[in-house]
């Protein structure tokens, strides 16, 4: 008979201390106490750079920084905040914490991690109160809106022939251009 192993849950402060000490030899993120590897393949990288060039930039800042969210430190592929936003706190020496009202869009470009992005991260970002969350796949974009403590109330799938609303810019973009 095999004994179940102990599952260790990292705190934000433990993770930050380990990260700042150089304990990780590859990109990782802290999701609900677990350390997840950050996987970036060719399609992912190409799509990210392309998407960054197409998102509207007026009166906003687009970043690829870690986005402290509750007891997690996810690394979304990019996220958009108000240009005049100021951090409401810090984690460690390098991570700014932002008000959910200032975070306008969170984007995950998803290939190998699509199930985690559509489930775990949807709960994470929705419960944080971020108004819009996109999961970009090779075939479609899943837009999540109306955040709740359990995730998002609304999810719409946009395919190649559709246009997806970019609420913070009051415009739409062709999905085919983004993926």
Automatic annotation (TrEMBL):
Domain Putative restriction endonuclease: residue ranges: 25-147
Signal peptide start-end: none
InterPro entries documented for this protein: Nuclease_put_TT1808, Restrct_endonuc-II-like, Uma2
The protein's name: Putative restriction endonuclease domain-containing protein
